[in-house]
Specification:
The chain is α/β, with parallel strands linked by helices and 435 residues long. The chain has 3 domains: 61 residues, Transferase, Pyrimidine Nucleoside Phosphorylase, Chain A, domain 3 (Up-down Bundle); 247 residues, 3-Layer(aba) Sandwich (Pyrimidine Nucleoside Phosphorylase, Chain A, domain 2); 89 residues, Aldehyde Oxidoreductase, domain 3, CATH 3.90.1170. The chain contains 17 helices and 12 strands. The strands form 4 sheets. It has a 4-stranded mixed beta sheet with strand order 1-4-5-12, with helices on both faces. The protein has a 3-stranded antiparallel beta sheet with strand order 6-10-8. Helix 5 crosses helix 13.
Length: 435
């Protein structure tokens, strides 16, 4: 086969075969396809698409471009993926809760992207904890704790690593087919028997409109199911941060408050709904509502927290982290309150702007080589629809330096809109997409 012929066929709107797309994916992984050819391929796909069968074929080809894990376990192997938001630390709660409900969870996660936080960066806010485990160590942690939250090794979906970097510099990130193949090739390489997708929509999401989220959710669900992995997607609201805290250590703290029964609210509700969907899909519960209740029960009775503690210790973190977690998490030296300039209702929250504010504080990366400060971020965020008095705190800024806190103050003030009338609140879960 020849890369030029494949690119030409996509350019001309022809449907590609499974063999052609598998060859191209292998060529991305082993270097037979040049950067120029990869960029032309990505642009042709962006403009003309691959069709449903082509999207499945590319996903499987990218999955098979590297190692595909196999598990000989006595319980289903499940996972979750989020398309990205702010204040979203559901993975830290969901992974151990699923284990408590009878699953194994080898969660291959990512780092912060753009304005959104990364699960790996959050986990690494725990002192000593490592996410860069090789396959042998991953298997050992999953066997010991039931779950692990780790980065993908170089052997997992190498075609995606190559194509993702090229998409980033060629203006082709937005392709629905390439987004789908990128997300699912890594997840399917983990050898899953069930997957739930959290597709975000709203001001803090990449898919800002429900229509965009619906299209992505349908593409992901149809492709994953066609690839043999039972998958459901929930379209969840990101018109405000999911947790009241944004930033790596602060979001670990938010997750720990849920796991230890000190908080509930929207973070717990979304986590339970995601868990219920994947438990039902794997046949561990009769339906999603029963699964959501089972997952919530595993949190309220402490089983999920116990699993989380085992996972933290197995990945190199403190042995007694769950029992004394506030002592282990780093704290920023500067804390500044953002006060309401007037009374009114919180009518809108620009999640994208808040995410960028955390990045500017040092809680994310502006370039790939940036070091993250795990302690910085925003906490105690006011909720959409809340009525506030003049001078009442809208949020607290956690910063490394006073000047950084003052810059963040202006950003947070600009991101929160106050009005005389209460807004209509969006639903927390907009839709459920299944096969």
């Amino acid at each position: 086969m020849d890369a030029r012929r494949i690119i030409t066929r996509i350019r001309d709107g022809a449907a590609l075969s499974r063999d052609e797309l598998d060859w191209f994916a292998q060529g991305l992984a082993d270097g037979r396809v040049s950067d120029a050819q990869a960029g032309a391929f990505a642009m042709a796909v962006l403009l003309n698409g691959l069709g449903d069968a082509g999207r499945v074929a590319l996903t499987l080809g990218m999955r098979d471009s590297g190692a595909v894990l196999g598990w000989a376990l006595d319980r289903p192997v499940l996972d979750k993926h989020s398309t990205g938001g702010v204040g979203d630390c559901t993975s830290l709660i969901l992974a151990p809760a699923l284990v408590a409900c009878g699953a194994y969870v080898p969660m291959i996660s990512g780092r912060g992207l753009g304005h959104t936080g990364g699960t790996l960066d959050k986990m690494e806010a725990i002192p000593g904890l490592r996410t860069d485990l090789d396959e042998a160590r991953l298997r050992a942690v999953v066997g010991q704790a039931g779950c692990a939250i780790v980065s993908a090794t170089a052997a997992i979906a190498p075609a995606d690593k190559r194509l993702y970097a090229i998409r980033d510099v060629t203006g082709t990130v937005e392709s629905l087919d390439l987004i789908t193949a990128s997300i699912l090739s890594k997840k399917l390489a983990a050898g899953l028997q069930g997957l739930v997708l959290d597709v975000k929509t709203g001001s803090g999401a990449f898919m800002t409109t429900p229509e965009q989220a619906q299209s992505l959710a349908r593409a992901l669900v149809d492709t994953a199911n066609a690839a043999g992995c039972p998958t459901t997607a929930l379209i969840t609201d990101m018109n405000q941060p999911l947790a009241p805290d944004l930033g790596n250590a602060l979001e670990v703290a938010a997750a720990m408050r849920v796991l230890t029964g000190q908080a509930d609210g929207r973070l717990l509700e979304v986590t339970a709904a995601l868990g219920g969907a994947v438990l039902a899909g794997a046949g561990l519960t009769a339906d999603a509502d029963t699964g959501a209740q089972a997952l919530a029960d595993s949190i309220s009775d402490g089983r999920a927290a116990e699993v989380f503690g085992r996972m933290v210790a197995a990945q190199g973190g403190p042995v007694r982290f769950v029992e004394d977690w506030p002592r282990f998490l780093p704290e920023a030296p500067v804390i500044l309150e953002v006060k309401a300039p007037q009374e009114g209702y919180v009518a809108a929250i620009n999640g994208h702007a808040l995410g960028l504010c955390v990045v500017a504080l040092g809680g994310g990366r502006q370039v790939e080589t940036d070091l993250i400060d795990p302690a910085v971020g925003l906490s105690d965020m006011v909720e959409l629809g809340a009525r506030v008095a003049a001078g009442q705190p809208l949020a607290r800024i956690h910063a490394a330096r006073p000047e950084a806190a003052k810059r963040a103050l202006r950003q947070v003030q600009a991101a929160i809109t106050l009005a005389d009338a209460a807004p209509e609140l969006p639903p927390l879960i907009h839709d459920r997409i299944s096969a």
